[in-house]
Design a protein that fits this description.
Layout: H1 2-16, E1 25-40, E2 52-66, E3 70-81, E4 90-102, E5 110-126, E6 142-156, E7 162-173, E8 176-188
Antiparallel strand pairs: 1-2, 1-8, 2-3, 3-4, 4-5, 5-6, 6-7, 7-8
Length: about 190
Protein backbone atom coordinates (compact mmCIF):
# COMPACT_ATOMS: atom_id res chain seq x y z
CA UNK A 1 0.00 0.00 0.00
CA UNK A 2 2.86 2.37 0.86
CA UNK A 3 4.45 1.78 -2.55
CA UNK A 4 1.19 2.36 -4.39
CA UNK A 5 0.69 5.63 -2.53
CA UNK A 6 4.26 6.63 -3.37
CA UNK A 7 3.68 5.90 -7.07
CA UNK A 8 0.47 7.92 -7.15
CA UNK A 9 2.04 10.82 -5.25
CA UNK A 10 4.97 10.87 -7.67
CA UNK A 11 2.60 10.97 -10.65
CA UNK A 12 0.66 13.88 -9.16
CA UNK A 13 3.87 15.84 -8.42
CA UNK A 14 5.21 15.29 -11.94
CA UNK A 15 1.86 16.28 -13.48
CA UNK A 16 1.76 19.43 -11.34
CA UNK A 17 5.07 20.58 -12.82
CA UNK A 18 3.85 20.23 -16.44
CA UNK A 19 3.28 23.51 -18.29
CA UNK A 20 -0.34 24.70 -18.49
CA UNK A 21 -0.29 24.33 -22.29
CA UNK A 22 0.46 20.63 -21.81
CA UNK A 23 -2.76 19.84 -19.96
CA UNK A 24 -4.63 18.59 -23.03
CA UNK A 25 -4.02 15.02 -24.15
CA UNK A 26 -5.18 11.61 -23.21
CA UNK A 27 -5.10 8.81 -20.71
CA UNK A 28 -3.73 5.49 -21.93
CA UNK A 29 -3.76 1.93 -20.67
CA UNK A 30 -1.28 -0.65 -21.92
CA UNK A 31 -0.40 -4.28 -21.45
CA UNK A 32 2.13 -6.67 -22.91
CA UNK A 33 4.62 -9.43 -22.39
CA UNK A 34 8.41 -9.48 -22.17
CA UNK A 35 11.29 -11.89 -22.53
CA UNK A 36 14.29 -10.88 -20.51
CA UNK A 37 17.42 -11.77 -18.67
CA UNK A 38 18.37 -11.19 -15.04
CA UNK A 39 22.09 -11.04 -14.20
CA UNK A 40 22.76 -11.77 -10.55
CA UNK A 41 25.45 -9.93 -8.57
CA UNK A 42 28.20 -12.38 -7.64
CA UNK A 43 28.68 -10.63 -4.29
CA UNK A 44 25.20 -11.79 -3.25
CA UNK A 45 25.13 -15.11 -5.10
CA UNK A 46 28.14 -17.42 -4.87
CA UNK A 47 30.30 -18.03 -7.95
CA UNK A 48 29.03 -21.60 -8.37
CA UNK A 49 25.45 -20.42 -8.63
CA UNK A 50 23.63 -19.53 -11.82
CA UNK A 51 24.99 -16.12 -12.95
CA UNK A 52 21.94 -15.26 -15.07
CA UNK A 53 18.46 -16.51 -15.83
CA UNK A 54 16.07 -16.05 -18.69
CA UNK A 55 12.61 -14.91 -17.70
CA UNK A 56 9.14 -14.14 -18.97
CA UNK A 57 7.12 -11.19 -17.67
CA UNK A 58 3.66 -9.78 -17.99
CA UNK A 59 3.43 -6.01 -17.80
CA UNK A 60 0.80 -3.27 -17.53
CA UNK A 61 0.84 0.51 -17.56
CA UNK A 62 -1.50 3.43 -17.13
CA UNK A 63 -0.51 6.99 -17.87
CA UNK A 64 -1.13 10.31 -19.52
CA UNK A 65 0.30 11.61 -22.78
CA UNK A 66 0.15 15.41 -22.94
CA UNK A 67 -0.20 17.37 -26.18
CA UNK A 68 3.30 18.69 -25.48
CA UNK A 69 4.44 15.03 -25.87
CA UNK A 70 5.37 14.71 -22.19
CA UNK A 71 4.49 11.18 -21.02
CA UNK A 72 3.84 10.20 -17.41
CA UNK A 73 3.37 6.51 -16.67
CA UNK A 74 2.81 4.22 -13.73
CA UNK A 75 2.88 0.49 -14.17
CA UNK A 76 4.14 -2.84 -13.12
CA UNK A 77 5.42 -6.22 -14.18
CA UNK A 78 5.61 -9.71 -12.78
CA UNK A 79 8.42 -11.88 -14.11
CA UNK A 80 9.22 -15.52 -13.49
CA UNK A 81 12.25 -17.60 -14.35
CA UNK A 82 11.88 -19.94 -17.30
CA UNK A 83 13.67 -22.55 -15.15
CA UNK A 84 10.36 -22.92 -13.33
CA UNK A 85 9.14 -24.87 -16.35
CA UNK A 86 11.78 -27.58 -15.87
CA UNK A 87 11.50 -27.74 -12.07
CA UNK A 88 14.85 -26.11 -11.34
CA UNK A 89 15.81 -23.06 -9.34
CA UNK A 90 13.38 -20.26 -10.04
CA UNK A 91 12.70 -16.67 -9.16
CA UNK A 92 9.90 -14.15 -9.19
CA UNK A 93 10.48 -10.43 -9.72
CA UNK A 94 7.60 -8.02 -9.11
CA UNK A 95 8.05 -4.42 -10.17
CA UNK A 96 5.92 -1.31 -9.76
CA UNK A 97 7.30 1.83 -11.32
CA UNK A 98 6.70 5.50 -12.03
CA UNK A 99 8.29 6.93 -15.17
CA UNK A 100 8.43 10.18 -17.08
CA UNK A 101 9.46 10.55 -20.71
CA UNK A 102 9.05 12.44 -23.94
CA UNK A 103 7.49 11.19 -27.21
CA UNK A 104 9.65 12.05 -30.23
CA UNK A 105 7.84 11.67 -33.56
CA UNK A 106 10.31 11.11 -36.43
CA UNK A 107 7.37 10.06 -38.65
CA UNK A 108 3.66 10.81 -38.60
CA UNK A 109 2.65 7.46 -37.07
CA UNK A 110 5.88 6.48 -35.28
CA UNK A 111 6.79 7.63 -31.77
CA UNK A 112 10.05 6.94 -29.94
CA UNK A 113 9.52 7.37 -26.20
CA UNK A 114 12.59 7.29 -23.90
CA UNK A 115 11.60 7.17 -20.22
CA UNK A 116 13.35 7.28 -16.87
CA UNK A 117 11.83 6.45 -13.52
CA UNK A 118 11.93 4.64 -10.20
CA UNK A 119 11.17 0.96 -9.73
CA UNK A 120 9.80 -0.44 -6.47
CA UNK A 121 10.58 -4.14 -6.58
CA UNK A 122 10.23 -7.42 -4.70
CA UNK A 123 12.50 -10.34 -5.61
CA UNK A 124 12.37 -13.96 -4.42
CA UNK A 125 14.38 -17.00 -5.42
CA UNK A 126 13.39 -20.53 -4.61
CA UNK A 127 15.63 -23.54 -4.44
CA UNK A 128 14.10 -26.19 -6.71
CA UNK A 129 14.92 -29.87 -6.92
CA UNK A 130 16.85 -29.35 -10.18
CA UNK A 131 16.58 -31.28 -13.40
CA UNK A 132 16.19 -35.00 -12.70
CA UNK A 133 16.51 -34.16 -8.98
CA UNK A 134 20.28 -33.60 -9.23
CA UNK A 135 20.08 -30.79 -6.73
CA UNK A 136 20.34 -27.04 -6.71
CA UNK A 137 23.20 -24.66 -6.03
CA UNK A 138 21.37 -21.37 -5.44
CA UNK A 139 20.67 -20.02 -2.00
CA UNK A 140 17.17 -18.67 -1.40
CA UNK A 141 17.04 -14.87 -1.48
CA UNK A 142 14.16 -12.55 -0.63
CA UNK A 143 14.55 -8.83 -1.00
CA UNK A 144 12.84 -5.59 -1.90
CA UNK A 145 13.87 -2.04 -2.61
CA UNK A 146 13.71 0.83 -5.05
CA UNK A 147 16.09 1.63 -7.89
CA UNK A 148 16.27 3.52 -11.20
CA UNK A 149 14.72 2.06 -14.33
CA UNK A 150 15.10 3.17 -17.97
CA UNK A 151 13.00 2.28 -20.99
CA UNK A 152 12.73 3.20 -24.65
CA UNK A 153 9.52 2.38 -26.53
CA UNK A 154 8.78 2.37 -30.24
CA UNK A 155 5.05 2.98 -30.76
CA UNK A 156 3.13 2.77 -34.02
CA UNK A 157 -0.23 4.59 -34.34
CA UNK A 158 -2.32 2.03 -36.23
CA UNK A 159 -5.72 3.41 -35.28
CA UNK A 160 -7.08 6.47 -33.53
CA UNK A 161 -6.95 4.87 -30.07
CA UNK A 162 -4.65 1.86 -30.56
CA UNK A 163 -0.81 1.78 -30.54
CA UNK A 164 1.19 -1.46 -30.62
CA UNK A 165 4.68 -1.08 -29.15
CA UNK A 166 8.06 -2.71 -28.80
CA UNK A 167 10.22 -1.63 -25.87
CA UNK A 168 13.60 -2.25 -24.29
CA UNK A 169 13.81 -1.90 -20.50
CA UNK A 170 16.88 -1.98 -18.28
CA UNK A 171 16.96 -1.80 -14.49
CA UNK A 172 19.80 -2.03 -11.99
CA UNK A 173 18.77 -3.59 -8.69
CA UNK A 174 20.58 -4.35 -5.43
CA UNK A 175 20.84 -8.03 -6.45
CA UNK A 176 21.93 -7.41 -10.06
CA UNK A 177 20.38 -6.05 -13.22
CA UNK A 178 17.65 -6.99 -15.66
CA UNK A 179 17.13 -6.37 -19.34
CA UNK A 180 13.94 -7.14 -21.24
CA UNK A 181 12.47 -6.79 -24.70
CA UNK A 182 8.70 -6.41 -24.58
CA UNK A 183 5.80 -6.21 -27.00
CA UNK A 184 2.29 -5.02 -26.31
CA UNK A 185 -0.39 -2.46 -27.04
CA UNK A 186 -1.58 0.85 -25.61
CA UNK A 187 -5.16 2.08 -25.76
CA UNK A 188 -5.77 5.84 -25.63
CA UNK A 189 -8.99 7.19 -24.07
Amino acid sequence: MRRTLGCLTSLVLIAATAPRTALAGGVFFGFGGAMGNVDFDRDIFAANQTPSDDSFAGEWAVGYRFDSKLVIEGGGAVGISLDLLIAGDNFELQDQHVMVGYAFQPAKRLSIVPQLGVSFWDFETEDGPGLFFLGSQRVDFDGSGSDWIARVSFEWDTAKRFRPYAAYTEAHYDFGKSRALSFGAKFQF
